[in-house]
Fold each of these.
Amino acid sequence: ENLYRIEGWGQPYFSINAAGHVTVSPKGERGGSLDLFELVNALKLRNLGLPLLIRFSDILEDRIERLNACFAKAIARYNYPGAYKGVYPVKCNQQRHLLEDLVRFGKPHQFGLEAGSKPEMMIALALLDTPGALLICNGYKDREYIETAMLASRLGQTPLIVLEQIEEVQLCIEASRQLGIKPILGIRAKLSTQGVGRWGSSTGDRAKFGLTIPEIIQAVQELRDADLLGCLQLLHFHIGSQISAINVIKDAIQEASKIYVELAHLGADMKYLDVGGGLGVDYDGSQTNFYASKNYNMQNYANDIVAELKEACAEHNLPVPTLISESGRAIASHQSVLIFDVLGTSDVPSGAPEPPQEGESAIIRYLWETYQSINEENFQELYHDAAQFKEEAISRFNLGILRLTERARAERLYWACCEKILAITRKQEYVPDELEDLEKIMASIYYINLSVFQSAPDCWAIDQLFPIMPIHRLDEEPTRRAILADLTCDSDGKIDRFIDLRDVKSVLELHNLKPGEPYYLGMFLNGAYQEIMGNLHNLFGDTNAVHIQLTPKAYKIEHVVKGDTMTEVLGYVQYDSEDLIEQIRRLCEQALLDKRITIQESQRLLQNYEQSLSRYTYLSS
Ligand code: PLP
């Protein structure tokens, strides 16, 4: 269990059962669990091939419950005379089934939605039917966006239009005048508090969004002149996603609460404070400020927000605001698990090499002697010798002095030296820098039925770490150390960074493949941002997805969203399947006329071609 750290990142949803399979407890501690391996097999019987994205709607519900419970507890603990009304940022995962669930699960908490763009606002407007829930309108806006948001109030929605650019102030003033609607306006501030990690540049004077302090003053003035200062009721900030250190959150809230108080003093009718996203996910389970983790929990987060606002408002005799957070990652990550299979493996040669033969080149003898002499005292020095001899063998080969078979022998001996040295370094407490890559160089390559670009784009684009592990055979010692190579013919289509305790490791411990038996891996906590940012590199399309809900006795499949077929994917790049088939048919006819193909072969080819077009873009194993 410790190997994959599931007890850290998996809590309370994922664990390992006595059969050595991953178990999912979608309701957390509230009970009920599923054997993930058995679930995958059952789904395969329903013709749902891998790769397969499984969404557990109960996990989504549990995340919403947890977040609201943490704020409720903080509000009670600090006697906060106000409320919390969270919103879910649609950008994090816009899939319809997920959003419909989310709105439904959020009803008891008046949980709302945040739109970061005009198309997202279209979704939010249509889906959000919870009385009293907030509709936060962020992102760049044009007049149409602003008008639509304002008119939404006539439908019973509570839209809050957040001014992100100074130009939007006049747009709002004009729209308000024309429609005769007094909107609720907010300001997104560019805080000086610096975020941390991958998204640290979301804040500061040069951040992409938000108003600087002088612009905030200008906006207040313009609204006052238009007699709309009373509409300014919200202050918003967002210091980046996945904030790993709690002190950064505290600093931001402190700065924001000062601005909030000042806005009230300037005459705005302040009622809401929106702390944006940033609530982190513990991908490696280390509970540290490492970027793939966070050194605080949801309760600490809620406590700090509530306590700071209570104090800041009390100091200035101001009513406290309704608190809003836009947590996306913390809500959506856990609910989806991506299951994929291993198609095959490749290894560097291993095992004891043959000693040199009579008449073989001296370089082979030197490598053999190096191989034999390696021990715990000299392994670092002899690693250099072995590398040098191998280079020399290649130079000699290029000069025509060494034959191909001899080069093969030299390379084989070099790998044997590396294998021996690696075995020694694994026992050492300290591994010299130059030998650190040895593990990666000697790793097996496991070929996975997946496109990293489609299903885990952040792995490729920003070195994001997701927990990855086999979902079965966990009662067996894994004997291989591997990196994962995907189906794309792109050398970036690989995963060679895996979670470790507060660190990254370059290989994943895996099991030997057994002939005729599938080997399933799971990628966890990847429900946020990955699906929509995935791309069609090499024309691998959307994967199959299913929504699973726990029932008192077992589970039910709520929705099946079939992955793209080849026809669909080819359609995205303007190919028509019928035209393609017709073209192949013509080529077959010509080949028949020229007697280059038999009628049986041409029929087989056409049949395969037609069938493939209606099939999944991934390989069937
Ligand atoms: N709010 C805004 C304005 C954002 O830009 C983002 C994403 O970065 C979020 C909320 C969601 O952040 P997270 O997923 O870290 O909760």
Amino acid sequence: LTLKTQFKDHFKIGTAISRDQVLGALPEDLNVAKAQFNTFTPENSMKWERIHPEPQTYDFEAADALVQYAQENNQELVGHTLVWHSQTPDWVFEDEQGEPLTRDALLKRMQNHINAVAGRYKNRIFAWDVVNEALNEDGTLRESKWSTIIGDDFIEYAFKYAKQAAPNAKLYYNDYNLYKPEKRAGAIALIKNLQSKGIQIDGIGMQAHYSLDNPELSLMEDSIVAYAATGIDVMITELDISVLPFPEGEEQGADISLDIALQERFNPYPNGLPSEINTQLGERYKAVFNILKKHDDKVSRVTFWGISDARTWRNDWPMQGRTDYPLLIDRELKLKSFVSDL
Ligand code: XIL
């Protein structure tokens, strides 16, 4: 049994792929990805800082390799991401003197970037996360250089430019904590605003960086139903379930690999996950997939944020140097035993 066959009557099942994986440093990872999943998202390779690091420099090496690999292996590819406040170099927002760009100049720069990146893979990429993480937790628009320099309509322009650059691609809005009722209201307003202006938006991606006790899954379910009611596709785009304690305040971001006291508190399972915690993880995944399967008329894709526990960003976030177990595939690249119950 593979994940893609197990869920074939429900939704597409995907994974994020890293630069190292696609450029051949980890061939066994790529074999597992090809066997288990039917849709890929580049983990970092198409983000602005990677693909367009300097004003006149594009680096398409990893992105090109992934597009080609996906094509050769019948994997649907979702580009990630065209417009985001994070992993975007400072120069994007400045002129040659280091002064902030005008609205018109930044719009032009956004359009050129989208043309270069989305245009390059036109007809070879199934869909794009056009805008990522533009909302605050209370549903208002996040203050970023995009919103400050251009204004709230930067989102409309991003979708219009993406449509022009890749007219056949599906266009998505992607964000985290979209289960929260206030953020849900903001996302629905964003979708409806685009729809009312005749700007194409095809789907919403709910990142799902969950833990054993958060979020309350009924909120996730309510959000799936509410987003689907706007008429667009709903996708779970970045699923992982951390089993580790979530640090608060200044502990967030800390590298704990050399700090024994922090390790005892925040990295409790460096040598393997106790079976009772693994059972809890399985129960949690089962609860998530029960909801997703119940709404498989609305949910078109479920993408995990990584292939296996050996290489997941959660080993380094929200603290660095931990041993987490958030995915369905273990460090030996085997499906976890609870997967057959999902
Ligand atoms: C993460 C990657 O997994 C890390 O390798 C990188 O250091 C930071 O970004 N939301 C997103 C993803 O939309 O792009 C992020 O990916 C995780 C959170």
Amino acid sequence: MAPLLEIKGLKTHFATDDGILQAVDGVDITINRGETLCVVGESGCGKTVTAMSILQLIAMPPGRIVEGQIIFEGRDLVPLTSSELDEVRAKEIGFIFQEPMTSLNPVLTVGEQIAESLRRHEGLPQKHALARTVEMLKLVQIPNAEARVHDYPHQFSGGMRQRVMIAMALACKPKLVIADEPTTALDVTIQAQILDLLQDMKERFGMAVMLITHAMGVVAETAQRVVVMYAGKVVEEATVDSLFEHPSHPYTQGLIRSIPRIDLDSEHKSRLEAIGGSVPILINPAPGCRFAPRCRYAMSLCTETEPVLREIAPGHRMACHLGEAP
Ligand code: SF4
């Protein structure tokens, strides 16, 4: 079966006073129907820009998709006009942002906002749209949904606002939901509830989820497949089992070593390790592998030649010179 979404050779760059910032630089990502794909990496690795490029939610200018295709259900989204993209947004691809207050309209009730989406995209009359909105708020476990539908965003707690955001993103039953660090702004206990809710909704509606996160623990809990990004590029891609059993790229290994392990006794517990250094500024990046300045295995080839993604096991690809055929 054809994938639901195929990102091919995507390059999204930003014009800055210091030069062109290559935030996303030749990214290929595939999402299959009904799966949860996690895109993981530190801040500044290009994962949010990749996600936002799908629906052209980046500020243009200074941002610009300079190359590549984003094929959704057989149609390239890159050349679409803003009104054509409006149809795709919400109806076919829902987006859940990190901080719902920035995407919910503070002067409209949550009911008005969700109902508006249903009226616009599904042509529902007001009465039916409001009834569906209450139904959605119940599904995302907002207590007393019939009354709370008339409340404004500021009258909800952070966790409840994120539930409202999920209800809004899912109202038109999209085939794909993109969730960009949806729990970052929340307390730890609420984070787990929101991830469970997202998983629950995914199963109920049969949609695919692209979950952007910097937390490997979240990846282990939620993903079926994982894409690891570093400095605007994909450096490893695998099923979640393959990635955790055989992490192959030194950056992925570093991310996994930085996860706290509660399953090991004190004798076997190794120290948590941070990855030294930081993500490079992506204006005129140095040739070769972008991870080289932080990599414990770097060799002269690494600073001369950029490694390309290659298959190292069925469904498992990485971009690193280690283990390459001579
Ligand atoms: Fe390290 Fe070289 Fe592999 Fe880059 S290509 S991750 S520098 S070993």
